[in-house]
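User: Sequence in, structure out. Go.
Assistant: Echoing your sequence, followed by the structure tokens.
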Amino acid sequence: MVSTGAFCRNSTISMAFFGSGRERRLQPVHAACVPFGFLEPNVSLIYSDLMTSSLGMESDALDPKKHSEEGARWIRSGRSVGEFEAPAKTLNSILKKVNAPPQIDFFSLDIEGVELAVLKGVDHEVYGFTWLLAESRNQEKLNFYLTSLEYELAEQVSQHDYL
């Protein structure tokens, strides 16, 4: 299982891998996932807890700054909306670094508008996902990309989440 989320200042990606005998490895990675060809060493983000947004990347969020401001209600006491940077890495490079299996059973992708950019940072000839749960505000664009990789839409599970 791989789970990504735009939920904290250090841009953590949590990866849990299950091996033989249900052995579990949890490996948090601190990075902002980017597509292949992204040239900057870091990604600028606006912290807003559950609605932290990336700046300067292909996004289906109309206005990442406004989106983050709307997320201020989720911020815990003592914290505030603010900009920060995280190291830019492709998901492919992260999967390789943590010795991820080539076939990942479940991938949850919810990073406030840049899901497609993250998917464009995976070598789909090397890594595949049995089940992919992705948030998207532009399901047509996401579906077009994923069907080109021979994935099928199983169902819409909420307003913006697709399996």
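User: And one key feature?
Assistant: Residues 6-12 have pLDDT under 50 and may be disordered.
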